[in-house]
Amino acid sequence: MGTRHRGSIGRYLEDFAVGDVYEHFPGRTITETDNIQFSLLTMNYHPMHCDSAFAARSEFGKPLVNSGLTLAIVLGMTVNDVSGKAIANLGWTDIKLTAPVFPGDTVYAESEVLDKRESKSRPTQGIVSVRTVGKKADGTQFMSFVRSVLIPKRGHSVQDLV
User: How far apart are CA 41 and CA 87, in angstroms?
Assistant: First the structure.
């Protein structure tokens, strides 16, 4: 008889250490369709995202990927390593957009643990802060942000109860 295994996502508070770096995998190639659908879904009708003729006359010469989409994709890439067991996101700060992203670019992300502490009001939880950097396949950094997440201690995750 085989052994039963349950998939897991994320980490417990005890698993984080200040200075650790998580290289999130896999990367994600952003398509023109992704960009147009996200832009229209979020009611961002700026022609730089969905009008190639307009964008061709800009300094970039082609459409830009909506920065809300790049933020969402990079954030999503971090979930398995950073917040898969999270109780709540507590906030994002210091969001920087440092280079353009174009349809067809493949993006990657990595997160460094900046701080970890036990919660003062919730004894079974703690707060982890990470700096996440988004990079294109050619190594160009296009984004960074700091995020704080409320994380359970081992044995206190909803996932432990299922």
Answer: 27
Assigned token pair, 19: 């200075």
Spatial neighbors of 65 by CB under 8 A, at least 6 apart, are: 30, 34, 35, 49, 100, 101, 102, 103, 105
- Among the listed residues 16, 4, 65, 13, the one whose alpha carbon sits nearest the alpha carbon of residue 39: 65
- The amino acid at residue 32 is E
Task: List, in sequence order, every residue forming a beta bridge with 146; answer none if it has no partner.
Answer: 93, 131
Query: Cα–Cα distance between 131 and 148 in angstroms, integer?
Result: 9
Each residue's pLDDT expressed in tens, for the chain with a length of 162 residues: 789 877 888 999 999 999 999 999 999 999 999 999 999 999 999 999 999 999 999 999 999 999 999 999 999 999 999 999 999 999 999 999 999 999 999 999 999 999 999 999 999 999 999 999 999 999 999 999 999 999 999 988 877 766
Domains defined for the chain, CATH in brackets: 13-161 (3.10.129.10)
Q: Hey, what amino acid is at 160?
A: D
**How far, in whole angstroms, is CA 40 from its chain's centroid?**
21
Q: Which amino acid makes up residue 30?
A: I
The first and second tokens of residue 116, run together, are 């970890």
